[in-house]
């Protein structure tokens, strides 16, 4: 009797383990099926629309950096036989000069194969305008902000702050201009001259792009490249853009280049940033707030005010939102 009871208990336990195992398998299968259905349904429309003839739209927004994902997207657009024309939608105050250069070159490669038009939203300044001139036609709103052609280099001098808190930084280097200028000492005249030479060289390159792409003579390009910004109406008068309007004007120009006006405009969207990257950005903003003596809850406001500009490094071509145009004079 005892043996039979023990055997029954063992059998029930085995049965429960089997049932539990198959329940887990069933749940996993159901989960994978739901994931597959989601991926198919969420991606099918984009895949189908990008596989049939269409007009590609790509956005360049915010602070411009050398964005590998955007560069890959532009390369794919250029190589896609389904793309018959391209609208580059720009809303940017600028960013790093190298980032603008990289995107400029990518847009020019597309323009060698198919018609490309820029459609300016609120702002296409500095490196943002650099990207606009890479297209073969620029459309902007009457109240858009355009221009700020120029380059700058900024660095903080915290030497007085260090003196007040009793910190002295000793530096041993191989030559006087190594690692100059730096945060810890006022820049020497030689260091300022070195940076100025570098800025003027990049500035001349930027002016050359505008001169070539907008069909200006050198004097005309220089007259507009003093860091000034213009409304869309002023920009049209100065021939910095080609037409006033929105996306419909861009589509009209593409139609004039032989693009079928019945084609659908499909936005090629960026791949979503990783959670790790997002967390890193948030951590950086929290650290900045702490250094400024602000509560962590102020990081949202801090990000709205500064964006990525606090973390730009090297030569930049960017318009300051305080309304003061910047550029090499």
UniProtKB/TrEMBL annotation:
Gene3D superfamilies: 2-enoyl-CoA Hydratase, Chain A, domain 1 (3.90.226.10), 6.20.330.10. Its EC number is 3.4.21.-. The keyword Hydrolase applies. Keywords: Hydrolase, Membrane, Protease, Serine protease, Transmembrane, Transmembrane helix. It holds the Pfam family Peptidase_S49. One of its GO terms (molecular function) is peptidase activity. Residues 111-255 form the Peptidase S49 domain. It comes from the Bacteria. CDD domains: S49_Sppa_N_C. The chain crosses the membrane at residues 21-40. GO terms for biological process: proteolysis. SUPFAM superfamilies: ClpP/crotonase. It is an enzyme of class 3 (hydrolase). NCBIfam families: SppA_dom (TIGR00706). Belongs to the peptidase S49 family. This is Protease-4.
């Amino acid at each position: 009797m005892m043996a039979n009871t023990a055997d029954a208990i063992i059998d029930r336990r085995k049965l429960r383990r089997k049932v539990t195992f198959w329940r887990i398998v069933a749940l996993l299968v159901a989960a994978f099926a739901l994931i597959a259905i989601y991926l198919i349904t969420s991606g099918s429309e984009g895949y189908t629309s990008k596989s049939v003839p269409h007009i590609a739209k790509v956005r360049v927004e915010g602070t411009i950096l050398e964005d590998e994902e955007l560069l890959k997207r532009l390369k794919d657009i250029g190589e896609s036989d389904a793309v018959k024309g391209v609208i580059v939608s720009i809303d940017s105050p600028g960013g790093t000069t190298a980032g603008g250069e990289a995107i400029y070159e990518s847009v020019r490669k597309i323009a060698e194969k198919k018609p490309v038009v820029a459609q300016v939203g609120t702002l296409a300044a500095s490196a943002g305008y650099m990207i606009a001139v890479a297209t073969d036609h620029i459309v902007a709103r009457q109240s858009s902000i355009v221009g700020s052609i120029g380059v700058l280099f900024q660095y903080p001098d915290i030497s007085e702050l260090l003196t007040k808190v009793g910190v002295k930084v000793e530096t041993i280097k191989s030559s006087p201009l190594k690692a100059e200028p730096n945060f810890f000492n006022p820049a020497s005249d030689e260091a300022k001259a070195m940076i100025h030479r570098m800025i003027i060289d990049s500035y001349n390159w930027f002016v050359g792009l505008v001169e070539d792409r907008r069909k200006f003579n050198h004097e005309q390009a220089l007259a507009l490249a003093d860091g000034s910004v213009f409304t869309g109406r002023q920009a049209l008068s100065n021939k910095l853009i080609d037409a006033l309007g929105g996306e419909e004007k861009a589509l009209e120009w593409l139609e004039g280049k032989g693009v079928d006006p019945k084609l659908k405009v499909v936005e090629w969207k960026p791949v979503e940033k990783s959670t790790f990257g997002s967390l890193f950005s948030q951590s950086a903003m929290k650290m900045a707030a702490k250094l400024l003596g602000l509560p962590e809850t102020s990081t949202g406001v801090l990000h709205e005010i500064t964006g990525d500009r606090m973390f730009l490094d090297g030569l930049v071509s960017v318009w300051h939102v305080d309304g003061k145009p910047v550029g090499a004079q």
